[in-house]
Structures are given as structure tokens and as C-alpha cells.
Amino acid sequence: MKFTAEQIADILEGQVVGDPHIEVSTLSKIEEGTEGSLTFLSNLKYTPYIYTTEASITIVNADFEPDKPIMTTLIKVEDAYEGFSKLLQYYNQIKSEKSGIEQPCFISESVKIPETIYIGAFAYIGKNAVIGENVKIYPNAYIGDNVKIGDNTTIFSGAKIYSDCIIGKSCVINSGVIIGADGFGFAPNKEGGYSKIPQIGNVILEDEVDIGAGTSIDRATMGSTIIRFGVKLDNQIQIAHNVEIGRNTVIAAQTGVAGSTKIGEHCQIGGQVGIAGHLSIGNNVRIQAQSGIARDIKDNEKLQGSPAFGYGDFNKSYVYFKNLPKIVKNMNLIEKKVDGNN
Q: Where is the UDP-3-O-[3-hydroxymyristoyl] glucosamine N-acyltransferase non-repeat region domain positioned along the sequence (predicted)?
């Protein structure tokens, strides 16, 4: 698929500097640009490459002015990185345009299917499910009974959405995601084993939530596990029963959140973080990778370590951590000198 500089500028509401009719059909890094490719410049340290790149079109910030000749046609936009991201979304949308119902698949007779839907082969849609407009359900996806899926949501191959869960509008559920499996609820019994506690709640994803491949979100014991508007979860994350994650929070891969913990809005949580259950984490919290959280966290805190403590304190302490053998050796020498003088 080819696009001209003029067409791209129209999409991004930008200005063409150079040949408006030049065409591109692929993307490239600016330092690896070739004829027929599109690239962008947003990080100033890559500026030298704009004078050598062979990319046909380069997206740049509106205030960029070359100080020597360039070969590439420029498209000036307010924010080059944001503009390139927007273009990727547009391209991905065109690339993933699918419609119709492939066979074989199973759709319960109680389900009303919009004309704008795409359902891939071997997908399963259970009783009384409600499917919105422009929804895409890829092959081998499972949609349980009474599930509700909002407009413009995409469910990729192999995702499983258990009964009674609610998925909002414009969500992306990637392959291997499991939404609504039973929470980890067991009670000790008199025989010395464990009896399962029925998990009768559900999971609610609000609008514009993105769930990465292999992530699991457990249904609530009672009530709902809730993922609020705009949350982005990376691959292979575990969200336990009755957890609530606030608006626009982002969590990186392999993080685990134990049951009934509440995470605030606009938090950023790094990879492999472990968060204990029944905690309250405030808004705008930053947690560094591989941290362990075992206490309530106030708004705006920055944490690192296991158990985690203040990010600034951690960095100061780390100077001593890495020099601990030398410090101990010096202390032993001092003790010997003191003992020798007594």
C-alpha cells in the first residue's frame, strides 16, 4: 500500500516541504532509511541522520529547519513523535480491516450480530452475549454467556472472556488474555485441605483499555474486578479478584497484583513488581521494576526496592549496598586498631 507525502500530511494536518507527490510503502529508522520509506525525527541526537537518510519522507517538528541540504521530503507537524504514532495507528487500522463471519464458528441463537462485525473461524459466542458495532473477534476467541462488548473493541485470537464480564468501547484484548477466570479463593477445612470459595462476581473493563498478551484478570468473589478508563496492561500480568485499577494507569510485564488492592489514577508500575493484597495505592505513584509493595502508598510517591521504599532514599542507599564488602572490611580494620590500642 502506497501513500504520497500529500496524503500523509492531510492525515496528520501537517505541511509538506519538498515533493508532495513522492510515495512511500514502508517504514524505517531514520539512520536506516531507504528510498520508498517513511521515517521521523523527534530526538535531537538523531538530527545528523536527516542529512544522510535516504528515506523518501521524514516527519519532523514544525520548528525544524535544516542547516544544510537534505534529500528527504519533510512533513512538518506540531509533534513528530505523536504524528508518527498517529500514522501507525491509521496504518494498523487499515491493515486490520476485516468484516463478515467466517465458518466454522459458533454463535448462540440469542445473540444479535451487527452488520459491521468481524468474527473469525472457530470463535465461540455464548448465550445472551451483547456485541457492539465494529467489533472484531479473531479466530479461536471465546466469548462466554452474558458477556457485553462495546463498540470498536478488538478481541484477538485465543483470548477468553468468561461469562458475565463487561468490556467497554475501543478496547484491545490481545491473544492469550483470560478475563474472568476464578479468583484464587480457598478456605482451610477440617480435613487439613482447602475448600474452594465460589467466585460469583465478574470483571469490568471500561472504555479504551488495552490488555497485553497472556495477561489474566480474575473475576471478583462478589462484585467486580474493575479496570478503569484508559488503563494499559502489558503482557503476562496477573490481576487478582476484586482489584481496582484507576484511570490511565500503566503496568509493565510480569507484575502481580494480589486480591482487593486498589490502585489509583495515572500510576506507572514497572515490570516484575509484586503488590500484596488489600492495599491502597494513591494517584500518580511511580514504582520501579522488581519492587515489592507491602504497605499502603500515598499520592505521588516514587518507590524502589523489595520491600520498596522511597526512590531517592533507595538510590542514596544503593551507594552503600554495592560497597558493603569494602565498608565491612574497613570497619574490621578499625576494630582491630581499637582493640590493639586497648
A: 22-89
